[in-house]
Amino acid sequence: SIDxxxxxxxxxxxxxxxTSGRTDPLMPILCLLSFFLSAVIDNLTATIxxxxxxxxxxxxxxxxxxxxxxxxxxxxxxxxxWSPVGDVTTTMLWLxxxxxxxxxxxxxxxxSFVAGVLPMVGVWWExxxxxxxxxxxxxxxxxxQQGQQRQRSDSEAGASLGGASGAESMQTGVTADSxxxxxxxxxxxxxxxxxxxxxxxxxxxxxxxKMTTGLPPYxxxxxALGILWFVTDTTAxxxxxxxxxEEVDVEADGT
Length: 255
Prior knowledge:
74% of the residues lie in helices and 0% in strands. By secondary structure, it is mainly alpha-helical.
């Protein structure tokens, strides 16, 4: 429901502003987001959300998406182990009163964090080394092209205009690549912020209701979904989100 109303556009905009077109901080940001998000929702949903954000941020770099996507899966599985509602196994144990919330978080947070962070550090280091090799190869290729162009400009008559136009075309290509590498920031509206905040609060409400009232988590999730559906189906929310209403307008006489 949050993704249906594009609530994660708020998170995507924040990630794009934090990275500023750089790919180095993208992996730790998404991995930490998956780690803590999977502790609130299930592992599969946290992985889908993180991969969706990754596709918006780095959709053109396939190698980067594969590297970060693999680490995101590891972080999501590690993050779901230290929360009673983060994994099906821990949820079943919690419903059977085999584990408690406090002891599960205290004893499993640090091992889960290590299991999620260590693979990220290794892949991140390898990815940075790979990027440095690519950058050095591109720099050598660019120097070779500039050297060949300088030789042609020295040997041919009237090559100064050609060299200037070539340099201008080269500069234009670099600018186009940089603009392509930096995607446009998604639009953030009040309705998207409302859906995101309300969805997270409703999910966090599930373990609180279980501890205070004894309500089973699946009923808490259904209650959270019902609250989210009720609010997003109101006329005020449709007016806020500029969504068309499908219902037929009722006349004053009730027809």
